[in-house]
Each structure stands twice: as structure tokens, then as C-alpha cells.
Amino acid sequence: MFGTRLVVLLVTLGCGLAADGALGDTALTQDDECQTSDASQCSANFLQVQKAPEEVEELNLSSSYHYTHIVTLYHQTSESAGKSILKSGFRPGHLGWCGAGIYFALSPQATSGKIKGPDSHAGYMIEAKVNVGKSKRMSWHCTTSASCNHHPFAKCQDRENRGSWLKRQGYDSIYYQPDPYGPEYVIYNPDLVVSMKGYRYHR
Fold it and tell me: Which segment of the chain is annotated as a signal peptide (predicted)?
């Protein structure tokens, strides 16, 4: 009788360990989709399964955000504008491929090839921790018509989009690649910038 109970106990423990292992693997593969209607719980789950914790900071999120995904991004501008941003925060631009948003590159080097618009300037780098949340992937021309494929782009780029449609669709940011210099993230809410620092930068 004792032997039978021991076998049952070992089998039960083995099943429990296998279930725990399966749950861990599943969590790591589901970090791009929220698995519950509770947005705050999604935020907590996402922080727990990130594979690069050095890029993640704790953030008190509004219930309107889907989960936390904080990345280090770069925005090049003039020194005077950069210091103004550090003091007062980002403000959305007037136009762009994705409309009147705040645009970030994935590296400092990439920003030098991207500063072409009428609102673009050079010489100062803003390095920001940005909560991109749930990102919508868009084509190279984003919310601008694909017929806008000739210079000057500023004459045909989107001036109307302010991002309200993006939130209605359940997204917090846009991820797209408009040029050979690499992808960009676009946000419309300056509050998604968690922290930032600035420094002089020369191409």
C-alpha cells in the first residue's frame, strides 16, 4: 500500500512540474498579444516575460494602454529645440508619413539619414525611453498616399492624422520603415516618453 501511494505521489508531482514548464514557455511566446481583458494585468504579465530587462522600466500605466513595452529610441534635432524638449517634453509635429506624430529611429546613426522634413534639424540627440506599447505595423508610406513618392514630400505627406484612429483599433504606436535607413516608431501621445537625455551629436 505504501509503495502504491509513493508512485501516485511521484506521478502527481511530475504532472505539476510539466504543467509549470509548459506555462512558462507559453508566456514567453505570447508577449505580443494581451491574453486577458484586464489591461493592468496584461501590463504586469508583459513586464515579467521580457527577455531584455535592461530595456524595460517600471511605469504606472493608464488603463487605456494595452501593455508595457519600453525601448530606447533616438530623435535628432537642433540644440535649442533639443534643450526645449528636455525641459518641456515632446510635441507632435505638423506632418509626416504617419501624420502629426513624434518620430523616433532605432539608432543614433539612423537619425542622420532621416532628418529631411521641414520640421527636421540636426546637431543634438535625444535618447529616450519610450513605451511603444502595442505597435501597429504599417507600409512604407504609412497613412500618406502611396502616390506621394517624389520630392518635395512635404507637399503631399499626411497633415491630418493625429492618432485617434490608432487608439480605437487597440494600438499605442506605429512601426514602419519609410527609407533605407531603418525602421521608425511613431507615437502621438507625449506621455508615452518615460525618460530622456540629450547630448550634442555630429553626423
Answer: 1-18
